[in-house]
Design goal:
alpha+beta, two-stranded parallel sheet, 2 strands
Length: about 70
Amino acid sequence: MISVYYDLVTLSQVTNMKEIILIGSYQMTKQLNRFIINVQQEFKIVVRYVSVQCLLHILLFKAIYI
């Protein structure tokens, strides 16, 4: 989490940055959720986490139904 934190520090300094979306292969845990909440409060920016598996399901759904 520490290496991601420093990336978030840098991204939060970008002018007009409104949202940061993290994409990863981890399951959402209480620890990861707490980290995201703390980062949002610290930098006053929306941070979301999307798992790769979730993205694959969304893309598959769109491919089937579009």
